[in-house]
Amino acid sequence: MKIQSKLPSVGTTIFTLMSQLATEHKAINLGQGFPDFNPERELIDHVHQAMLDGMNQYPPMAGLLSLRERISNKVQSLYGHTYDVDTEITVTSGASEALMSSILAFVHQGDEVIVIEPFYDLYLPAIELAGGRAVPVSMTPPQGPSGRYSVEWNKVEAAITSKTRLLIINFPHNPSGITLDASDLDALENIIKKHNILILSDEVYEHLVFDGESHLSMATRPALAACSIIVSSFGKTFHATGWKVGYCCAPKELSLEIRKVHQFNVFTVPTPLQEGLSRFLQNPNNYAALPVFYQRKRDRLIAGLSSSKFRVLPSEGTFFLLADYSALSEMNEFDFSVWLTKEHGVGVIPVSAFYQDPQAESSNQQLIRFCFAKQDHTLDQAIEKLIQL
């Protein structure tokens, strides 16, 4: 039987490919974005106790009420916006499902969706499955020794047409590690005042913002909150990526449509995981302490790489760090990443993989992405190899 693929251009993801390569060559995997340490024992105990307490059957489709209440309280405390626990918060099977369900809910055949590149690899296939067309708008790449990526919002606005349905943003940004400031929110407010579009805000690294700064969620501005779907992740926040528990917050009329897709996609999320997270969230310090925890790891990797030929870019948030390898090689990013993994035992991700066309010259800035969500001895072993290059 001849099969016509709905995603003919999609193959094995770069994350899977580089992780397999790291395993085959016994390399230290600083590529794929997951911790190599467990969640807090308290959280695991809460989940275990929920199982023992008999919480093993279906929870409500939108998520346990207690967890939705904790999410609402957290968002109100951090960002000053209150989401209704009954109609505006949905617990999802990871942030991935929240993103997919949101895109499927609002993107129709022929609609355009603006994505800011480099971008997370889920966005384009989800848009394609929904029948839409992605319209990438590239950030300005880093310039000079202390450069960072930056968004030119006038270019974003110029890409909006009568067919534009959605703008997808992702801050703190994967892979670049940049965060938003007040001027970025001002620019977004100006855009939505003039154009009838929705914002899908991927905020999975909301609790990983460094150097004493705070995350500026779409929920901090009423005008933005009114037209935004905000997605977050307990897996990223609490070192439990394999649990695949996330959530999305959106106005009632938007949440209603998202839940229609969610209901027939996964229906709901494992009950004991939700209950364990609900109990764990009673102590705000369990997420408030994360910036210091991860900043120490970031600084450890930066300090180690200072003795190498890599030039480190600023990491304002996430658990990723970009480095320029132009002093070491003229290879493109994919070839350099493969070479580094095979020949020198450190797995990384080429930043070009986050562009629509990874082979294009404009997608290759001689940058690689390190993940520093690792145990200290893992980072130290990687640093030892990298400074020998």
UniProtKB/TrEMBL annotation:
Record keyword Iron-sulfur present: no
Cofactor: pyridoxal 5'-phosphate
CDD domains: AAT_like (cd00609)
InterPro entries: Aminotransferase_I/II_large (IPR004839), Kynurenine-oxoglutarate_AT (IPR051326), PyrdxlP-dep_Trfase (IPR015424), PyrdxlP-dep_Trfase_major (IPR015421), PyrdxlP-dep_Trfase_small (IPR015422)
GO molecular function: transaminase activity
Any matching Pfam family: Aminotran_1_2
Annotated Aminotransferase class I/classII large domain residues: 27-386
The keyword Transferase belongs to this UniProt entry's keyword annotation: yes
Record keywords: Aminotransferase, Pyridoxal phosphate, Transferase
Domain of life: Bacteria
This protein's name: Aminotransferase class I/II-fold pyridoxal phosphate-dependent enzyme
Organism, as annotated: Alcaligenes endophyticus
Phylogenetic placement of the source organism: Bacteria, Pseudomonadati, Pseudomonadota, Betaproteobacteria, Burkholderiales
